[in-house]
């Protein structure tokens, strides 16, 4: 169709420049989408596949993924690119989406704002995504796991290292309590023994050879079993 | 007709007569410790009997030997083996008013070896048992944080990825084998002491010391908590468990009877062994505890009650454990299925929710029909609930791996973790009281320490020595050493001692005298059931179990399982053979206590025969007391 227009316009031999402009305009209309199609395709070398799991993340509150959400995604990605590159003004048109499936997954590529035929290399896109990953996730109420950029692994959170491991604190408490308990019991045993010894030496003056329990006022009860002189160890020694 | 017995001279001089017992009872001769009340005694015995084995050995045996059908051999052997032995130990301790060494020496001086063997076994078992308590304490200390440290893999040093050893196995495995034990790859590779383990071990022994400081005066107070708390926690876990998804599957799995297992002799053997070890017999601790009772305490009733409580606790804890295991298995199954479904959705870009658990099988079939190569490349896992349920683990694996994993899946995990490990701690500690009693009292009876040393000092020395030797369990290879001790120190010697105990009481002390003693103590003679079991049935059962154990251990190649990240089947544990020098250790653990029994008898015989002195003893009655005088006459 373009060739007919071209030859036809030449035949008319009208204003060449005007015709040329019109021809270029037509080319852009037809060719641009075709060009964009070439840029964004499955397994594009400079593109990323995005996978979204709404039902897993939000369950009953999951919103519907439609064209508006896709537009929102384009806007978010443009924001991420702007944030990373700061000097260049990316627009929604610079984010091209394709191969949308019902899973919800799709591919996207990013074109340069100066030259729409040139793609931003994969590495730069990755840096931009990493920088704003948290913002992108939050925009969609999703997480690293439910909004996946296949090929961009989420950075692991740095481990929280407290100054003292918590277990040492509990250990310290327990062992402190135990030591206090041991010391208290040992001291009370010692005091008890001292009291007993004191008690014995006070009564002992009168009843030195009668260490009989159950004896009062030095009166020897009849038939009292005097343990003072029996050998406790009736068993044959080893 | 009198039951045949071996000649035993001088028995009457060695033991207090019935009149003397009555007299001692009336005067409350305060030299010997006494229970404050019956409850303390019962709780202490229950605590000693009910231990970690009820929680992590019985459920496994039950599940692997035909579920509900295992109850049959277990209950039969409980009645024929457990209760008679228990009654025997209680009665003899109460009658002869002494610890294990004292009792057997009183029956016959040549039997002192039985007491010494009990002492050695109590000492060795106490050492490794308290190490398990140290591990429990380590987990308890680590439970005071959210999220629990074993719920996720740690990040590696570069912060690039999770630690590979952890991703290949699981966070709970990693925390147990690496963070807790820092286990080496073989028993020969000692790997040095792990400082955090040494601290936990120190804490465990100090805690034990504070509770056993003054003997039953302190343990009697401690058991009010340590013996009752496990039941409270078990009940809480049961209620929590029953509200979790999949718990009933676990309980059903546990109790589904498979009557074919009853034909298998190993089922009966395992049941017999479990009953025996579960009652903590032959340690000497029960004899000691019962000797602090009043003479007319009804030991027959006590034996029956404690046996029933022990059996009930085993079944109860099995129910609780398997309800939680059922929950874990269901979670694993759901995760497995979800993973497969996600893989399918991602590979075929299907909408979420199009494949659910219900239509998974047919969806998979359809897709396999149309795209077989893609399905192959996905490498889907087979998810089978029965497989997950029968990942039947026992011992430390159950408590520190399977159960901790289940806890991480419950909401408010730190609370459940704290409760669980407090329960394990109480179960272990109350058993340790019996062990310490079985070690300290014989040492006192043997007069190894000077008499004037207080009990606190002797207990302290026992704890200190045990702690120092137990440092071998704090090495990297400590886990393997503990398994070694568990298999050998706590198995064969106990069977030997139990057999000798029964022979000693029935044939050397004399079952007729024993019957009269029990009649004196509780008011009626033991009935036919006791007579038959004491004389024939129980010794026979113990002998059979011993012979089978011995034969299996000796004939089979002794192996152990090791954690080796560089092995091919990792994370499956590697089966290794023990090095040659371990057999010396095995002999020390199993052989020495067993051989001490005849050894001491021979030693005493040689000493008496070879000594040229004949010792004559004369008794003189004086005004104040009987005085025993010894003269030596050169032959």
TrEMBL record, chain A:
Signal sequence segment: 1-36
Main location per the UniProt record: membrane
Domain Collectrin-like, residue spans: 44-238
Topology relative to the membrane: Single-pass type I membrane protein
Keywords: Cell membrane, Glycoprotein, Membrane, Phosphoprotein, Signal, Transmembrane, Transmembrane helix
Cross-referenced Pfam families: Collectrin
Protein's UniProt keywords contain Membrane: yes
Compartments, as annotated in UniProt: Cell membrane
An annotated GO cellular component: extracellular exosome
GO biological process: positive regulation of amino acid transport
Annotated transmembrane regions: 167-191
Protein name: Collectrin-like domain-containing protein
UniProtKB/TrEMBL annotation, chain B:
Gene Ontology MF annotations: metal ion binding; neutral L-amino acid transmembrane transporter activity; symporter activity
Signal peptide start-end: none
Positions that bind Na(+): 47, 50, 54, 278, 310, 427
Keyword annotations of the record: Membrane, Metal-binding, Sodium, Symport, Transmembrane, Transmembrane helix, Transport
GO cellular component: brush border membrane
Transmembrane segments: 41-58, 70-92, 113-141, 193-210, 222-242, 271-292, 304-325, 415-436, 457-476, 488-511, 532-551, 580-603
Protein's membrane topology: Multi-pass membrane protein
Compartments it resides in: Membrane
Chief localisation class: membrane
Any one of the GO BP annotations: sodium ion transmembrane transport
A Pfam family reported for this protein in Swiss-Prot or TrEMBL: SNF
The keyword Chaperone is assigned to this record: no
Family to which this protein belongs: Belongs to the sodium:neurotransmitter symporter (SNF) (TC 2.A.22) family.
Record-linked PANTHER family: SODIUM-DEPENDENT NEUTRAL AMINO ACID TRANSPORTER B(0)AT1, SODIUM/CHLORIDE DEPENDENT TRANSPORTER
UniProt protein name: Transporter
Organism lineage string: Eukaryota, Metazoa, Chordata, Craniata, Vertebrata
């Amino acid at each position: 169709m373009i060739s007919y227009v071209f030859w036809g316009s030449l035949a008319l031999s009208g204003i060449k420049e005007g015709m040329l402009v019109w021809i270029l305009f037509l080319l852009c209309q037809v060719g641009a989408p075709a060009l964009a199609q070439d840029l964004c395709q499955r397994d594009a070398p400079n593109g990323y596949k995005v996978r979204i799991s709404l039902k897993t993340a939000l369950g009953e509150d999951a919103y519907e993924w439609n064209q508006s959400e896709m537009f929102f995604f384009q806007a978010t990605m443009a924001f991420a690119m702007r944030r990373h590159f700061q000097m260049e003004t990316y627009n929604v048109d610079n984010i091209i989406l394709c191969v949308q499936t019902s899973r919800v997954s799709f591919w996207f590529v990013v074109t340069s704002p100066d030259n729409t035929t040139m793609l931003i290399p994969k590495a730069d896109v990755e840096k931009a995504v990493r920088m704003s990953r948290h913002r992108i996730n939050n925009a969609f109420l999703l997480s690293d796991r439910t909004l996946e950029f296949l090929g961009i692994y989420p950075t692991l959170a740095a481990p929280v290292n407290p100054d003292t491991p918590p277990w040492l604190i509990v250990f310290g408490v327990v062992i402190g309590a135990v030591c206090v308990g041991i010391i208290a019991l040992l001291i009370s045993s010692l005091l008890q023994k001292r009291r007993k010894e004191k008690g014995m030496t006070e009564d002992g003056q009168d009843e030195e050879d009668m260490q009989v329990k159950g004896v009062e006022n030095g009166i020897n009860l009849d038939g009292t079993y005097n343990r003072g002189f029996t050998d406790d160890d009736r068993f044959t020694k080893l | 007709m009198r039951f045949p017995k071996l000649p035993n001279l001088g028995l009457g001089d060695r033991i207090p007569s019935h009149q003397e017992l009555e007299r001692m009872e009336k005067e409350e001769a305060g030299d010997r410790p006494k229970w404050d009340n019956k409850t303390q005694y019962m709780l202490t015995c229950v605590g000693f009997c009910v231990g970690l084995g009820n929680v992590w050995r019985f459920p496994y045996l039950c599940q692997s030997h035909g579920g509900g059908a295992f109850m049959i051999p277990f209950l039969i052997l409980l009645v024929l083996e457990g209760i008679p032995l228990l009654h025997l130990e209680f009665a003899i301790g109460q009658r002869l008013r002494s610890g294990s060494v004292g009792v057997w020496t009183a029956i016959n001086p040549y039997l002192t070896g039985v007491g010494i063997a009990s002492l050695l076994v109590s000492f060795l078992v106490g050492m490794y048992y308290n190490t398990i308590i140290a591990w429990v304490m380590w987990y308890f200390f680590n439970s005071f944080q959210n999220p629990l440290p074993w719920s996720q893999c740690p990040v590696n040093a570069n912060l690039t990825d999770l630690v590979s050893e952890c991703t290949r196995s699981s966070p709970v495995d990693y925390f147990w084998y690496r963070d807790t034990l820092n286990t080496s790859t073989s028993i020969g590779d000692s790997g040095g002491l792990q400082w955090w383990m040494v601290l936990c071990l120190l804490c465990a022994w100090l805690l034990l010391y504070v509770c056993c400081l003054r003997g039953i005066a302190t343990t009697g107070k401690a058991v009010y908590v340590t013996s009752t708390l496990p039941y409270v926690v078990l009940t809480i876990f049961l209620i929590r468990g029953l509200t979790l998804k999949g718990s009933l599957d676990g309980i059903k799995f546990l109790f589904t009877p498979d009557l074919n297992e009853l034909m298998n002799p190993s089922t009966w053997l395992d049941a017999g062994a479990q009953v025996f070890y579960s009652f903590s017999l032959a340690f000497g601790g029960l004899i000691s505890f019962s000797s602090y009772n009043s003479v007319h305490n009804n030991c027959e009733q006590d034996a029956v009650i404690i046996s029933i409580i022990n059996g009930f606790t085993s079944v109860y804890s099995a129910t609780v454990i398997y309800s939680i295991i059922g929950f874990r298995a269901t979670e694993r199954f759901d995760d497995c299925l979800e993973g497969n479904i996600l893989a399918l959705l991602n590979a075929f870009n299907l909408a979420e929710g199009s494949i659910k658990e219900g239509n998974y099988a047919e969806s998979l079939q359809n897709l396999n029909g149309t795209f077989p190569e893609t399905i192959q490349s996905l490498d889907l896992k087979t998810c089978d609930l029965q497989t997950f349920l029968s990942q039947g683990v026992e011992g430390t694996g159950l408590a520190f791996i399977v159960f901790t994993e289940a806890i991480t899946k419950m909401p408010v995990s730190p609370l459940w973790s704290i409760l669980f490990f407090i329960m394990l701690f109480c179960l272990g500690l109350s058993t340790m009281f019996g062990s310490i009693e079985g070690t300290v009292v014989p040492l006192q009876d043997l007069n190894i320490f000077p008499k004037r040393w207080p009990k606190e000092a002797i207990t302290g020395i026992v704890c200190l020595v045990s702690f120092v030797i137990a440092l071998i369990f704090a090495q990297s290879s400590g886990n393997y050493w503990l398994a070694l001790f568990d298999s050998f120190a706590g198995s064969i010697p106990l069977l030997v001692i139990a057999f000798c105990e029964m022979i000693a009481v029935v044939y050397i002390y004399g079952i007729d005298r024993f019957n009269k003693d029990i009649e004196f103590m509780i008011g009626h003679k033991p009935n036919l059931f006791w007579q038959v079991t004491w004389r024939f049935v129980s010794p026979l059962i113990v002998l059979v179990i011993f012979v089978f154990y011995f034969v299996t251990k000796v004939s089979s190649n002794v192996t152990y399982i090791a954690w080796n990240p560089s092995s091919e089947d990792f994370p499956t544990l590697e089966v290794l053979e023990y090095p040659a020098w371990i057999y010396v250790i095995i002999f020390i653990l199993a052989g020495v206590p067993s051989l001490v029994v005849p050894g001491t008898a021979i030693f005493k015989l040689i000493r008496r025969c070879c000594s040229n002195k004949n010792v004559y003893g004369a008794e003189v009655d004086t005004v104040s007391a009987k005085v025993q005088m010894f003269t030596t006459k050169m032959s």
